Automatic annotation (TrEMBL):
Natural source organism: Chordeiles acutipennis
Protein name per the record: SESN2 protein
Gene: Sesn2_0
InterPro entries documented for this protein: AhpD-like, Sestrin
Segments for region (Disordered): 177-207
Compositional bias ranges of the Low complexity kind: 191-201
Any GO BP annotation: cellular response to L-leucine
Catalysed reaction equations from the record: a hydroperoxide + L-cysteinyl-[protein] = S-hydroxy-L-cysteinyl-[protein] + an alcohol
Origin: domain of life: Eukaryota
Family: Belongs to the sestrin family.
The UniProt record lists the keyword rRNA processing: no
GO CC annotation: cytoplasm; nucleus
Keywords: Cytoplasm, Oxidoreductase
Gene3D superfamilies hit by this protein: AhpD-like (1.20.1290.10)
Length: 294
């Protein structure tokens, strides 16, 4: 009972801070989006996130505002995150962007299209980036980038690659005004496109997820039982087997998108959609070059 008042004060302080953040969001953008609602559980983190977003998208910089939002669209599209694609398509138009560009990457200026290669590498295999990729973008010419522009563009790309992962990881749902509320999740390799409109934690999507966990647990149990029969199996070998089972069961979604609406809204901003993640360290293979500081 002695600790109750102080705990209550802490809770009230956190609630007040969260409410203040929501008010700021509403004043700034006219609404409180779902990313803000989720991050609002950690007000200090949300405050830092907002400062970063504000600096990247609204403060002075070499890139005009509409191009910043278009780069955000390109980054989010690489990860098939239609939540962010839809969000920044609206922002792009709001700051005076050319609607024709939203028909797809092929309609954007060549200068932006030249970011495609480094965008896909940063999104899926960043260890493959070399100085030649940077030099090609800075090379003098009609569609060349200045160093300041390129730095801001690369920060935007990496920021939105990371934010897409946050959205998927937290199961953030799109706002009601966004397209059907189904585009915030990557397609499940074990469900058809009809389940895409279910709630992220309900419907067939939720049942599929539960079933995958049950199957994984069952396979782990069989491995443990097998260990009793194989006394010679070491603890390290069993750990390796567990990791293999887990990896096989939790494979990432395939790069192709089965939902036609997602195809039209996202793939139009993606060139070379088959390019995806691939392990950079494989046993028996030569390690790729890596950047070293110091």
């Amino acid at each position: 009972t002695i600790l109750s008042p102080s705990r209550q004060i802490l809770q009230e302080g956190a609630e007040s801070s969260r409410r203040q953040r929501f008010i700021e969001a509403f004043v700034s953008g006219g609404r409180v989006d779902n990313i803000t609602m989720v991050m609002g559980l950690h007000p200090q983190y949300l405050s830092s996130f907002w400062k970063t977003q504000y600096l990247l998208l609204r403060m002075d910089g070499p890139l005009p505002y509409h191009k910043r939002h278009y780069i955000a669209i390109m980054a989010a599209a690489r990860h098939q995150c239609s939540y962010l694609v839809g969000l920044h398509m609206a922002e792009f138009l709001q700051v005076g962007g050319n609607p024709a560009w939203l028909q797809g990457l092929h309609c954007a200026p060549q200068k932006l299209r030249n970011l495609n290669e480094i965008n896909k590498l940063l999104a899926h295999r960043p260890w493959l980036i070399t100085k030649e990729h940077i030099e090609a973008l800075l090379k003098p010419g009609e569609d060349s980038w200045s160093l300041a522009e390129l730095v801001q563009a690369l920060v935007l790309l990496t920021h939105y690659h990371s934010l897409a992962s946050f959205i998927f990881g937290c199961g953030v749902n799109p706002e009601e005004e966004q397209d059907g509320g189904h585009g915030c999740r990557p397609p499940s390799p074990h469900s058809d496109s009809s389940s895409a409109s279910d709630d992220s934690m309900g419907g067939s999507g939720g049942r599929d997820a539960m079933r995958e966990v049950e199957v994984l647990v069952e396979r782990m149990k069989l491995l443990q039982e097998g260990q009793l029969e194989e006394e010679s199996v070491t603890q390290e070998e069993m750990a390796t087997r567990f990791e293999l089972e887990k990896t096989e069961s939790l494979l990432v979604a395939p790069s192709d998108i089965t939902d036609p609406s997602l195809q039209s809204n996202i793939l139009c901003f993606v060139e070379d959609p088959e390019f995806g993640y691939k392990d950079f360290t494989r046993r028996g293979e030569q390690a790729p070059p890596t950047f070293r500081a110091q």
